[in-house]
Amino acid sequence: MKFKNFPIYRIEWVTSSFLIGTALLSLTVVPWFLWNQFNLPADAANKVHGWGFIWALFVFYYYATGFGITLGYHRLFSHISFKAKWPVKVFVLLFGAASFENSALDWSADHRIHHKHVDEDEDPYDISKGFFYAHIGWLLFRLKPKPPVTNVKDLQADPLVMLQHRYVQWIGAFVGFVVPAALGYAYAVLFVPAELHANPWMTALAAFLVAGLLRTVIVQQGTFCINSLCHMIGRQPYSTDHSARDSGLVALLTFGEGYHNYHHEFQHDYRNGVKGWQFDPTKWIIWTLSKVGLTEDLRRVPDSRIMAAELKEKSRTLGRDIDSLAARLDAPTREVKAKTITAAHDLAKELAIRAEALKEAATTKAEVANETMVELRALLNQAAGYLETLRRADAGSAA
User: Fold this and answer.
1) How many whole angstroms from its chain centre is CA 362?
2) Residue 293 in contact with residue 326, Cβ under 8 Å?
3) Could you give the angle at which helices 51-67 and 200-207 cross, rounded to 10 degrees?
4) What are the DSSP calls for 54-66, one per residue?
5) How many whole angstroms separate alpha carbon 330 and alpha carbon 338?
6) Does pTM surpass 0.70?
7) How far apart are the C-alpha atoms of 60 and 191, rounded to whole Å?
8) What's the rounded Cα separation, in Å, for the pair 185 and 207?
9) Same domain, 71 and 200
10) Quick count: other Cβ atoms within 10 Å of Cβ 84?
11) Is 331 in the same domain as 203?
12) Which domain holds residue 317?
């Protein structure tokens, strides 16, 4: 496309300027500032003192704004997976604004459309339009006019949400940029020894650059990875009807939000990492807050429904995966593994039957014995064993 034909009117100029500008400053000015400070002599007039405090401030803001998005914007406001008392709401609204990812109202409106129309043209960050578009492009320019906000009437009835929505940019600038700088200035004045002749404005600048600017870019890029990477890389144990995937790596970067295949199947569960070993600190905080009365009505999908989804998906993919592996085997190896191939197909049929039975039990709220759940988990492990056997046979025949 020639530049003269580029639809300039589609560019979101304010958003694009902020996102590109902060990213460029974080990649250029921040490293230059840190390197310059590292090489300054201790008695230099512009030497920053109090780096321990500044990095502690960065860590606090990183987690506060990160949880403002994951716990607040996402699981509380977008999906109503739990209820929160006003102190929790105020915290996530303040620090969510400081993440500079728009207001909770607008963020939730877009996210609810994403779940309703995932992988379709109406999806705001549709992965089928490419990695760049899903990651950040949808914010830089609009392919079509933004639809009217009609899916967040519940949030529009919340005075705290609407107050934040009206003043979100001012709140974000104050909490996200002014407060870190002010705290850096105050620290230099109150706690740096006078004989060091520290310039408090330099400490304020350092806090602004590190806990404000750099932290904003890092938190935003983590959120963007959920929209892009989690629809491209990872496993799909619960459904292949959509592009969402479970990624433990992205979960580490996004406070537990990386288990996206599960989330798209069970979006109203307050948990994303449903397995005990999965990293989901957002879930742990919500649960902990419920024990001290700050959150309540935590919505949780029954284990039987989760297992039913796993069984159904494995029944759909096992036969296909077995056939794909078997087709790559040479004739002698395929004959040796014929029993394994047949057994795997039989297991796929059994998994489908057991999935329907579990789904029916979940619908009628019938209790499923723990022994049954252990047995079903063993069947899933057996399916994995069949696949591993054929993968090894395939590797052996290729060698």
Assistant:
1) 28
2) no
3) 30
4) HHHHHHHHHHHHH
5) 12
6) yes
7) 19
8) 8
9) yes
10) 22
11) no
12) 303-398
Ordered per-residue pLDDT tens for the chain, 399 residues: 344 555 677 889 999 999 999 999 999 999 999 999 999 988 888 899 999 999 999 999 999 999 999 999 999 999 999 999 999 999 999 999 999 999 999 999 999 999 999 999 999 999 999 999 999 999 998 877 777 889 999 999 999 999 999 999 999 999 999 999 999 999 999 998 887 778 999 999 999 999 999 999 999 999 999 999 999 999 999 999 999 999 999 999 999 999 999 999 999 999 999 998 999 999 999 999 999 999 999 999 988 899 999 998 988 888 888 888 778 777 777 777 788 888 888 888 888 888 888 888 877 777 788 888 888 889 888 888 878 887 787 676 655
Residues 145 and 15 in one domain: yes
CB neighbour burial string for 123-144, b if at least 16 within 10 angstroms, e if fewer: bbbbbeeeeebbbbebbbbeee
- Same-domain check for residues 387 and 249: no
